[in-house]
Amino acid sequence: MRDVSVVGIGQTKVKEHWNKSLRELATEAILAAMKDGHVENVDALYIGNMLSGELTGQENLGALIADEAGLRGIEAMKVEAACGSGGAAIRAGYLAVAAGAYDVVIVAGAEKLTESSNCYTTASLAMAADADYENVHGISFVALNAMLMRRYMYEYDLMPEDFAMFSMNAHANAANNPYAMFQSPITLEQYNRARNVSDPISVMDSSPVGDGAAVLILMPTTSLNGNSARAIKIAASAVATDSLSLHARRDPLWLSAVELSARKAYEQAGVTPHDIDLFEVHDAFSIMSVMSLEAAGFASRGRGAYLARENEITPKGRLPLSTMGGLKARGHPVGATGVYQAVEAVTQLRGEAGKNQVIDARVAMTQSLGGVAANAITHIFTN
Amino acid sequence: MRDVSVVGIGQTKVKEHWNKSLRELATEAILAAMKDGHVENVDALYIGNMLSGELTGQENLGALIADEAGLRGIEAMKVEAACGSGGAAIRAGYLAVAAGAYDVVIVAGAEKLTESSNCYTTASLAMAADADYENVHGISFVALNAMLMRRYMYEYDLMPEDFAMFSMNAHANAANNPYAMFQSPITLEQYNRARNVSDPISVMDSSPVGDGAAVLILMPTTSLNGNSARAIKIAASAVATDSLSLHARRDPLWLSAVELSARKAYEQAGVTPHDIDLFEVHDAFSIMSVMSLEAAGFASRGRGAYLARENEITPKGRLPLSTMGGLKARGHPVGATGVYQAVEAVTQLRGEAGKNQVIDARVAMTQSLGGVAANAITHIFTN
Question: What global pTM score does this model have?
Fold first, then answer.
């Protein structure tokens, strides 16, 4: 397999884009990435998206977006792994370049969640869980996470406040990210007083629904030519799965897909959790951050929340998380999120993260989850 | 890139599967393919599907189906390119094996179209076309094809009857395929008297809505070991795109994505159209067969229909088409269809096609189209 590097990145701001369609958002991010990477000719496009059919009545996004971006004719397809679709699209693009099939590949993630009514968006997001055994009972996706958080708090004797630092860190970081949906820090008091969504998950534990698109341009590391100056290497690309439904897991409090894909990624990159300088974690809900930290080997079982309490997750801490705002505050346009994470990791490794710059960042990890970590797609980037 | 072979195939019958869910259909085909290929351990699953979200309320099919088939943990994701999703999934699986990432990969195509009301299925299928510029006017997918057929007949001075042989051949072949939806031949009189769907397309020009799943198991050609006896090589895998909307094409009567992907495939396989022993064409509507034959180089412009009139498309003809019934009579569970085509091509190259066997078949081509050939995914198989 050929080594693969990221030579260009692009993104739109995450927000409720009432005046831009899905195709416009995706095209804006693609053109930005092509400009950033000084790339004019492209061989293929893999686009991560979860709900374009349900919410905007549009499937066949690959051909549509390729054409819209002026690339009519190239190979193009959509890749879907629920909220992990962006990570899965990176994986597909990575394989195409690693195989030697193509030399310039666009990986896009794009999602428009606000084209529909809020309740229909919520119902559609639940399609990430098991339709026949979970959704049929009317449970929403946040409610599944709330059950996990409740059980976790019971098992490890925690309070909601123990999760606060994850959200506070995310919001503090987003304040310095012009592409983030929420650009204001939050206080512990705001966290504690936040309205309930699905007990014990409050709005301050939840990532917001938003629209956006993010893009990577991938090339083989050996043929970067004029693109090498700011190129960032993909040192690992790994995917693992778990059951969709929580009841089918032997241990609902352990994210085995996260563990498996992180292990594979560490092995590929030849690193350990200690080598990771920053981790773009899938903080769709704060319980997911905590459980991901444990399964990925950054904290022992039941101790994930303590990492945050000990203040180690800020950009100056031992393991900076959600360095540009994370899903919580940058926003979570589901199928685009995995690519946003990668764009942010590349920004850090280029040393272009401004006030949120992680000093001497050399190794960055991103993890994109589909469903309640039914899919886990882990990438490790190095400069 | 490593050479890739098909070592196992599986399929369910295409029909209205009222008593089987999407996950059951997919799993049935996967287990059949694993048995056929004597495969017990699998590294990854790529599943082609278009409408699981819209029609069955289920996204995240990759993880779901992997788990259901007893393969929890492996890499899995869904690939979508509208009606060409099956072909796109083969492409994704091919790249994973060609890259050297995996040694045993399952490619599945699965679709359940009859879980919903007919009118909702029709509306969902229209998501293969342009939501903002075509569907918004209320046009259905068959109506788009009807406009093409009408224009084609006008330009080349043809009658509907000139298209009859494509459907008659498909139905005759399906009669010998136990997995086909329609197993009865049709006469010219039946074709001529068929009820109108969208003038000039009749039910006898249209592939039927159905449920089904089909599966390939791919391995690197160099490490087949005990699987080599009936292995069939993938000699080419190529994807190209066109605009989704018909009005945006310079020449609506020319399928440029078909031309482009077929050309790339011929080049990869080192063959010409003359070398193709059978062609599983995307005969969603008979006009698509005719235009595909021209764009793929089997007939000159405006002469595609004559191939059928000259009786050259039967299993004993010069270019056998739809040898196991095609989309028209085997049935068209959209996201599964591209994989059915490949299963049938492999069946032919193994010499296991029974009464429909193409004598001395050595080179088989399949083409999976998304939208009105907005995506064209071409594969060439050799034994």
Answer: 0.98
